[in-house]
Specification:
Helix 5 links the parallel strand 5 (125-129) and strand 6 (150-155). The strands form 2 sheets. The protein has a 7-stranded parallel β-sheet with strand order 1-7-6-5-2-3-4, with helices on both faces. The chain has a 6-stranded mixed β-sheet with strand order 8-9-10-11-13-12. By secondary structure, it is of the alpha/beta class. The protein is globular and about 60 Å long. It is built from 13 helices and 13 strands. The structure holds guanosine-5'-monophosphate and manganese (II) ion. Guanosine-5'-monophosphate (5GP) is lined by residues 60, 157, 295, 320, 339-342, 345-349.
């Protein structure tokens, strides 16, 4: 059902509730209908964790440290109950994530459809982590939509497509999806199952999504989580090395090139734009994940409120947005570039050429002048 259809049905149900409130039966039917359309709270799966199932865990395309970390933490956690668990990624991921415990067992849907479909076909539970609408899985979208198994959402982005899931939790206030998996493990009374493997996966996602504990989403609970992981054997320096000191020379040279030659600063809008043509990607042998983190550098310029990076990928122009303070990146990405995400970090896309999409961005800046002061 599309969102529109769902909204219409909600409106109809609401209308019925008002007009036939004298009929208890009708009212009850409406409530039952409404409840059946919304995902049930994640807590309702806690008693079911001990019943063995075939489980597939999936995440968004080009998974980053939080997506991969939360998927693998969940993988190691569920395996302890005896479930058959498979992690399926819609696409490939950055090579420098391969150190994560269990990463070698992850199936890439794009390059191994047969094995991925085998797991999906027999899945009784499908966990969807770090995304909240199926189209974030690109070529896997239709496959996930048609699956009849129980679908469970754990996510921290805004505006979840809740009607697509049976159970779940969506909390845009959380620092990372890894924090949400940690909450699930501890709240379900299984904190003692957190071993070094799970701790490393969770810590990696928390570090990545909080910008190393820098963003406002880093609550006291996040620091308590880290203390708990430390007490369970986490070697945080090892994870830090894997995440930040684990690249090839070309990545650093590419970053230098881009900051020197592709960065434009628009002081009138307190905005930085980096537009990267395909030729740069080819020249510096840029691979999946090599452009991650680029969007953070210009945030160090005094007074900058918005940073936008657009990369000329084969199939689309892909945007990353980061803001400081009260500029809503999620709204901006949704309004102008078919995207979304969080208040201070979002992404989007465009089918236009790099030149046209940059022009549209500049027009959007004009429209947002007052919000960018
Ligand atoms: P990044 O810039 O790191 O790729 O993404 C920033 C945030 O926005 C992440 O939480 C990511 O999941 C989300 N995001 C990135 N691209 C898109 C998109 O095209 N659509 C939506 N809805 N979210 C996106
Ligand atoms: Mn995340």
């Amino acid at each position: 059902m599309t969102n529109n259809m769902f909204d219409q049905q909600l409106a109809t149900a609401d209308y019925r509730l008002q007009t036939v409130s004298d009929s208890r039966l009708n009212t009850l039917a409406c409530f039952t209908y409404l409840r059946s359309r919304f995902m049930k709270p994640i807590q309702e799966i806690y008693p079911l964790l001990s019943q063995m199932r075939k489980v597939v865990i999936t995440t968004h395309q080009k998974p980053d440290a939080d997506a991969m970390g939360s998927s693998l933490a969940m993988f190691h956690f569920l395996k302890q109950f005896g479930h058959t668990v498979t992690v399926v990624s819609p696409t490939n991921w950055a090579k420098w994530l391969d150190w994560m415990p269990g990463c070698k067992e992850v199936i890439d849907f794009d390059t191994n459809k047969e094995k991925a479909n085998e797991a999906l076909n027999s899945a009784e539970w499908l966990f969807c982590l770090d995304f909240n609408i199926f189209h974030r899985t690109k070529t896997m979208t239709e496959r996930l939509k048609e699956l009849k198994c129980t679908k469970i959402l754990i996510d921290h982005h805004q505006e979840p497509d809740s009607v697509s899931f049976d159970y779940g939790i969506s909390d845009a206030g959380k620092s990372s999806n890894c924090e949400m998996v940690y909450d699930l493990i501890t709240e379900s009374g299984n904190g003692d199952r957190i071993n070094e493997e799970i701790a490393e996966c969770i810590y990696a996602g928390v570090v990545a999504d909080t910008g190393s504990f820098r963003f406002p989403s880093t609550t006291s609970k996040v620091h308590c989580l880290v203390a708990d992981l430390k007490s369970k054997g986490l070697q945080h320096s090892k994870v830090h090395d894997h995440l930040f000191d684990n690249f090839l020379e070309n990545r650093l040279r590419f970053t230098g090139h881009v900051l020197l030659h592709r960065m434009q600063v628009f002081y009138e809008y307190n905005t930085v734009l980096i537009a990267i043509p395909k030729s740069d990607l080819l020249k510096y042998y840029v691979k999946t994940g090599d452009t991650e983190g680029l969007v953070n550098y210009p945030q160090s310029i005094q007074g900058i409120k918005l940073v936008a990076v657009v990369i000329d990928r084969d199939e689309e122009r892909k945007w990353s947005f980061r803001s400081k303070g009260d500029f809503d990146c999620n709204r901006f990405a949704r309004k102008y570039f078919e995207g979304g995400g969080h208040f201070n970090a979002s992404g989007g896309r465009s089918s236009d050429s790099l030149e046209v999409t940059v022009r549209k961005f500049k027009e959007a800046l004009k429209e947002n002048t007052s919000l960018l002061q």
